[in-house]
Design a protein that fits this description.
two-stranded antiparallel sheet; 2 strands; 1% strand; mainly alpha; 12 helices; 72% helix; single chain
Length: 268
């Protein structure tokens, strides 16, 4: 518990500087392109259009669970794009920033947060696009939409937990990054991003296990909020499991991070 408290204190006390570094990273990523940071928004739009053509028109004939597939897809894939960017960058967040953090005497516990901060601006812009699409397709705002704030906090919490663990293990175990990258590609298809798991006649035991995944919980919370008008407490068992797992991962991530960070420079 002490490790967890220390890590959270370090993160929140340095969050402003971390955000500045994160925004610098975003700008430098697209600096050599003619369109610059516009690609930061074009990229997910292109992916959404591709998945809609392949899965929406080819597999679901344009609808899923009574909703237009493009609406169902966009409500899930926008938070997924945030998760994907944070997760992939989070794997190497310590390893890639180690030299910089050592020079400026910045606490290394902030490094796993930077990928999350880098993805925030794109996420909020794409959320505006999502709301516009929902209204165009006839889904109007209602009281359940305030649950967005809960879904957003849940997404941030699970990403921080994953990044704390993954960024540390990537430094310690050389093969960890490629292994997790391969696993993450599998998770994409098992988290209900583009495929409706309830309609594929999979074994109930397998579907039940998949629905315990934290990413699945986050995506379903977004869909419950914007499409199905359900409160998160209506699925009490899934909510309880999600937060117990997230807190456990945060504590484990904080513990291994603090135990090994003094030796990071020697492991790279």
């Amino acid at each position: 518990m002490n490790d967890f408290i220390q890590t959270m204190k370090e993160i929140f006390s340095n969050i402003v500087i971390a955000n500045r570094l994160a925004q610098f990273n975003v700008k430098s990523k697209w600096a050599d392109n003619y369109l610059g940071s516009i690609w930061n928004y074009l990229e997910p739009i292109i992916y959404i259009a591709t998945y809609f053509v392949v899965f929406g028109l080819g597999l679901y004939n344009g609808t899923v669970n009574g909703q237009s597939y493009i609406v169902w897809l966009i409500v899930g894939i926008i938070p997924w794009y945030f998760i994907q960017g944070s997760f992939n960058k989070g794997l190497t967040s310590i390893k890639s920033q180690l030299g910089l953090l050592t020079k400026i005497r910045f606490p290394m516990s902030v490094a796993p947060v930077m990928p999350i901060l880098e993805e925030l601006r794109r996420f909020f812009v794409m959320m505006v696009v999502m709301v516009a699409v929902l209204i165009i397709f006839g889904t109007m705002p209602d009281i359940h939409w305030i649950q967005f704030f809960y879904a957003f906090i849940a997404m941030l919490a699970t990403m921080l937990a994953h990044n704390l663990i993954n960024s540390t293990l990537t430094v310690i175990i050389p093969d960890y990054k490629p292994a997790m990258a391969a696993v993450f590609r599998l998770i994409f298809f098992t988290s209900g991003v583009v495929i409706n798991l309830d309609a594929k006649h999979l074994p109930d035991v397998l579907v039940g296990i998949i629905k315990l995944f934290p990413f699945y919980y986050v995506l379903e919370t977004f869909r419950d909020t914007f499409l199905y008008h359900k409160w998160f407490w209506e699925n009490g068992s899934a909510t309880t499991f999600f937060w117990l797992l997230t807190v456990l991962m945060l504590m484990v991530g904080s513990m291994i991070h603090l135990r090994f960070r003094e030796r990071f420079i020697d492991m790279v």
